[in-house]
Design a protein that fits this description.
Blueprint: E1 14-18, E2 21-24, E3 27-30, E4 33-35, E5 40-42, H1 57-62, E6 67-72, H2 81-89, E7 93-97, H3 99-111, E8 116-121
Parallel strand pairs: 6-7, 6-8
Antiparallel strand pairs: 1-2, 2-3, 4-5, 4-8
């Protein structure tokens, strides 16, 4: 799927996603990724069952994140209450959803210059 939106210069935009990975700001990334407003990096989570507070440590360490969009593949799943609570204690609101919705929502929020990060699993 092709996603295009006007965003401020230097911001990461999710352009495409598929079963093998993502194209963000013109760069292809294989597998799961963390998309920050200024960079994209590989993410250690392999699937929804391996999403933990520890796997999301780079998001917490980034600082100032208000919203974490969690793309869980083809469909949304419940996340453990402990994970949601730990992120809330760090000042981060967790929004789990399917990966396509997370990509689209991220692009809109980053265009609005919101403090958002997307943690994305490929939709397999």
């Amino acid at each position: 799927m092709d996603l295009t939106l006007q965003t401020p210069a230097g911001r990461q935009v999710i352009e495409r996603y598929g079963t093998s990975g993502f194209r963000v700001a013109g760069v292809i990334h294989r597998g799961p990724v963390l998309v920050f407003p200024d960079r994209t990096e590989p993410w250690v989570a392999a699937d929804a069952d391996t999403v933990t507070f520890e796997s999301l440590a780079p998001v917490v360490q980034y600082g100032g994140v208000q919203i974490l969009l969690l793309g869980l593949g083809r469909r949304m799943r419940a996340v453990p209450t402990g994970l949601r609570s730990a992120l809330r204690a760090a000042g981060i609101i967790l929004e789990p959803m399917d990966t396509g919705a997370a990509c689209r929502t991220y692009n809109v929020l980053v265009a609005e210059e919101r403090r958002v990060v997307a943690a994305l699993l490929p939709p397999v």
